[in-house]
Amino acid sequence: PMSEVGIIFPLMGLAVILSPSLSGWMADRIGRHFMMQFGQISRAVVFFILAVMAMFQSPLWLFAVMLMVNAAAGTFFGVGADAYLTDITSLAERPAIYGRIRIGTNIGWALGPMLGAFLARTPFSLLFALTAILCLVGALHTKINCREAVREHDEHATTTVPGIFRDYQLLKLLACSFLLFLLTSQLYSIMSVYATGVIGVSRNALGMVYSVNGFAVIFCQIPVVRIMDKLNIGQTRRLVGGAVFYALGYVSLAFCSNGWQLALAVFTLTLGEVIVMPSLYVSISGLAPRSGIGRYMAALGFTRGVGYAVGPWVGSLAFDKYQGQPLMLWGLLSLFAVFAAGGFWLISERKQSHSDKHHQL
After folding, report:
1. How many helices (H) and strands (E) does the chain have?
2. What topology is assigned to 1-144 in CATH?
3. Which H, E and C letters describe 295-324, residue by residue?
4. Could you give the CA distance from residue 289 to residue 287 in angstroms, rounded to a whole number?
């Protein structure tokens, strides 16, 4: 029953919220290289277990538990990889590097459903087993090609959890990011219901609309980063601009009446995604002490997990009340991006003011 299947997703979300604190600590104490391999091998083991469970038709609650473990294992690789990229790149190189990672991620998201459709008639046990093999291939690639970076030890780094909460610059960035995640979580939750139930587009057309998001990231990410680098736009200013594009894209959904207009709105909000996401990772990594990069990245992962857990609930409340008033619905939700842009702007202005005072001295 769908009521039982629906329980799996909150459990996976809970795992994504709870696991970053452990994965961040392990990335800083044990090492990024180990975490990347551990995350992929752990997921391979989970998928092999799922293959056996599918073969013997295990009860649903066992699948729920294993999928929750799988979601947690994914954060181990993600936090380790983000920290590793910070170790091997300079601050100036990171926007382009994180942009390339996002392109690879979106290619994977695009190819995954296509392969799934191609293999739709194969047993679920085989699908799980193939996924496990891919995870092992990824772990082998990491072992061969990703050498453990030499990390400088900073004895004065505030790498404890209380130390992170004393980094007010980080907390400001995370607060603004949380507002954005509340909005961006609507893309695959409320927007899909709105598109099919209110506008009346078909599910096939909706699938094409969502493909605009993936292809826009693939083809626009690197050019946009290069343009902003040439214009010498600072990371915090990029966050402001990206949040504005998010607001414009989501509020424009209120004026859509067909699939083509929806696609244009999604393209607009995806420009916000293309600008914000690399800059957000770069900004967080720039604040992190050398011995606390994993925990700073984990703090961002935790914030994203909470935002994506709470956002659809907030969106559902707004949808229930204003589904017949599209401008009110999307206008209210878009305020999250407006407030985030304002917060990023204040951070940017204070950084500029501090820089000016430093130069005067």
Report:
1. 13, 0
2. Growth Hormone; Chain: A; (1.20.1250)
3. HHHHHHHHHHHHHHHHHHHHHHHHHHHHCC
4. 7
- Return the HEC string of 129-185: HHHHHHHHHHHHHHHHHCCCCCCCCCCCCCCCHHHHHCCHHHHHHHHHHHHHHHHHC
Q: How confident is the model over 190-203, as pLDDT tens digits?
A: 999 999 999 999 98
If you search the block for the tokens 């954060």, which residue do you land on? 75
What's the Cα-to-Cα distance from 147 to each of 46, 88, 89, 167, 289, rounded to whole Å? 25, 10, 13, 30, 21
Tell me, what's the pLDDT at 244?
98
The predicted pLDDT at position 306 comes to 92
Say which residues have a Cβ less than 8 Å from residue 319's Cβ, sequence separation at least 6.
190, 193, 194, 329
Kindly state which CATH superfamily the domain 160-361 is placed in. Answer: MFS general substrate transporter like domains (1.20.1250.20)
Q: Identify the pLDDT of residue 120.
A: 67
In whole numbers, what is the pLDDT of the chain averaged over residues?
A: 88
- What's at 76, amino acid-wise? F
Contacts of 43 (CB under 8 A, 6+ apart): 70, 73, 74, 77, 132, 135
Where exactly does CATH 1.20.1250.20 map onto the chain? 1-144, 160-361
